[in-house]
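WARN retry 2 of 3 for item q-0093 after timeout on previous attempt; input resubmitted unchanged.
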Amino acid sequence: MFNALNRFMSRLDGDAPQSRQQAAGSFGFQVLRNTNLDLPIEPWFDFIVGINGRPIENPNPGLFAQEVRNCAGGTVTLGLWNAKGQRTKEMHIPVPAETGSLGLSLQYAPISLAANIWHVLDVAANSPADQASLLPYSDYILGSPEGALHGEAALGELVEDFIGRPLRLYVYNNEYNVTREVTIQPSRGWGGEGALGCVLGYGALHRLPAPLSEPVNAPGETMFDGATNEKSDSAFIPAGAPPPPSGGDYLVPAQMVGTSPVSAPPRGGRKKERHGHSPNRLIDDYFKEGEEKSRELDNAPKGKGSGVPPPPKAGAGPPKAGQKVEDASAAGSE
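OK item q-0093 returned
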């Protein structure tokens, strides 16, 4: 069921509007190393998708470096896409006049590369994953120095190649917002299922969430990318409505629009029947039908009497005085 849901979410992501794709960019320069400690850019997680208000569409690193050198002594504006929470932001960075460099090592790569992660869900006791101190639900496997991982089956294939040998993995923890290198030794003889002894999630439902240290949107704030939460200067007025009185913004309900007074419905006469059934009408009919069936089972009289008395119940008492009694002999001669 979860695999089908993941495939459905992937199709939804693939059918996203082009404006969202252009906002985040499908390709960018992934940050591999940051030697400038004063620059708040995270290796692996950050992708540079724009520079000075223009999206990066050319993979030539020389053009990017030349644009940065042109801003020497001033500031350069970088558009950054972060894999944690899949958010885009702008950053104004001063460029030293002496070097004209930012101290970053970059590679041109697709942003979908950040989707190749595996979420650690359950960890069995005494398993290789447990001995390697993998934490359930907060650890994410990003990759391995042993080789590149592309696709859902890539990690399983790498684990099979390292059965009985130590395997190094890059693991990110969401609760502590840190990345560490973990050494794990896959094994088939540890006494449980799988070579790692843990359940892994992959796909749209298991992407990297935003760090817990980031502020959470307050109630009523929008959570969509690029949307603003500012009130408009003009009030909402239905079409054809007169202008509201001056002195403030007002909301004019549709029922109050118009100059002619609204007359009350006629009191006499038969109500006009409406086509279709409302939900309340259907519920009333359902209960009415059930009540009629209950009356039939209990032999209860209907609301409008038909004049026919109900049949006598079994074990009725003796007839009352004045009631005609048939002759027993007549009954015996039949």
